[in-house]
């Protein structure tokens, strides 16, 4: 039985959003055990009558705020995030999920859980829907602002292993840049390009421009965390705007909307990022996942699903084994 700990506090929505997702997922997957970390007075009334739910509560009323510094996060050893990470450190659970502060989460997991290898940096790997059915995986989307070319290469290798292990296909890998020409970008772009180009274990496409992402030009995109986060939020904002435009036109032309309802439904369903809101924190010794700071129950649910799929496919074991082939 896999054990999943969920940090139910420290994000923009209420505790109930995290708990509702756990309840819904547990109803379909009774082979899972959950540890809910947060205010027991808020959590217990939501779960006490759910006989199918295998759970325990770790009580705390303290949380790490979104604006808290990393130093403050370290000092809050009774916070929901810190306690959640300690559960994984002490092998009381198999994976953890949080929607809390990204900077605090990276720092605490890095120090309490540790990295697979000292040469790598951890990265957030997130799924982005496209006009193709497959979509693409994107990293780093916010864990680290800067990378050396070698560090991005290692990140790409780990991400490649993630996709082949969990989803069973060989991804077409690209590197985010302002142009497709080989000489574009900064020095680290040239380094990671040369490393990937000469690696026969990956299907390397070269540099990918942001404008081609929604068209599905690649299955896996590698970037520094600063650029990656900017692009990801721009895509999410653009897709939200498209949804608002569609709703506005419903009111102007309800008859036209009626005839095109199925097409519109498929578009909104495809580009609803909440269906795939989880990010795997690649590079750590154990399985750690992050979801949006504004996550609702739908986003927590999709993150739990990704955690479960990763556990079923022994993700960390496979990534660790792969890292041993190119790191020494």
From TrEMBL:
Gene Ontology CC entries for this record: cytoplasm
Main subcellular location of this protein, as a coarse class: cytoplasm
One function term, GO molecular function aspect: phosphate:acyl-[acyl carrier protein] acyltransferase activity
Keyword Acyltransferase: yes
Record localization: Cytoplasm
Keyword entries, A-Z: Acyltransferase, Cytoplasm, Lipid biosynthesis, Lipid metabolism, Phospholipid biosynthesis, Phospholipid metabolism, Transferase
Enzyme class: transferase
InterPro entries xrefs: FA_synthesis, Phospholipid_synth_PlsX-like
Gene3D superfamilies: Isopropylmalate Dehydrogenase
Keyword Lipid metabolism: yes
Pathway the protein acts in: Lipid metabolism; phospholipid metabolism
GO biological process, one term: phospholipid biosynthetic process
E.C. code: 2.3.1.274
Reaction catalysis annotation: a fatty acyl-[ACP] + phosphate = an acyl phosphate + holo-[ACP]
Assembly with partners or alone: Homodimer. Probably interacts with PlsY.
Role noted for this protein: Catalyzes the reversible formation of acyl-phosphate (acyl-PO(4)) from acyl-[acyl-carrier-protein] (acyl-ACP). This enzyme utilizes acyl-ACP as fatty acyl donor, but not acyl-CoA.
Family: Belongs to the PlsX family.
Descriptive protein name: Phosphate acyltransferase
Name of the coding gene: plsX
């Amino acid at each position: 039985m896999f054990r999943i700990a969920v940090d139910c506090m420290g994000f923009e929505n209420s505790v109930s959003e995290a708990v509702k997702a756990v309840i819904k997922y547990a109803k379909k997957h009774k082979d899972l055990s959950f540890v809910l970390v947060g205010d027991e007075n808020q959590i217990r009334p939501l779960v006490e009558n759910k006989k199918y739910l295998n759970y325990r509560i770790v009580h705390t009323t303290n949380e790490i705020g979104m604006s808290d510094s990393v130093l403050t996060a370290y000092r809050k050893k009774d916070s929901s995030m810190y306690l959640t990470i300690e559960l994984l450190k002490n092998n009381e659970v198999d994976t953890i999920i949080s929607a809390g502060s990204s900077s605090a989460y990276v720092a605490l997991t890095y120090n309490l859980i540790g990295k697979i290898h000292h040469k790598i940096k951890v990265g957030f790997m997130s799924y982005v829907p496209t006009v193709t059915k497959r979509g693409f995986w994107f990293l780093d989307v916010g864990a680290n602002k800067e990378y050396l070319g070698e560090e991005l290469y290692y990140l790409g290798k780990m991400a490649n292993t993630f996709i082949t292990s969990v989803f069973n296909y060989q991804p077409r890998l690209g590197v985010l840049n302002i142009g497709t020409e080989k000489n574009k970008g900064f020095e680290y772009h040239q380094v990671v390009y040369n490393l990937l180009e000469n690696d026969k274990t990956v299907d390397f496409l070269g540099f990918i421009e942001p404008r081609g992402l929604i068209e599905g030009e690649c299955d896996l995109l590698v970037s520094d965390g600063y650029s990656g986060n900017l692009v990801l939020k721009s895509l999410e904002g653009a897709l939200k705007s498209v949804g608002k435009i569609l709703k506005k036109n419903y009111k102007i032309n309800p008859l036209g909307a009626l005839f095109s309802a199925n097409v519109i439904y498929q578009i909104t369903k495809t580009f609803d990022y909440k269906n795939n809101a989880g990010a795997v924190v690649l590079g750590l010794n154990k399985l750690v996942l992050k979801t949006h700071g504004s996550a609702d129950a739908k986003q927590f649910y999709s993150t739990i699903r990704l955690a479960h799929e990763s556990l079923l496919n022994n993700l960390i074991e496979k990534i660790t084994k792969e890292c041993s082939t190119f790191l020494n």
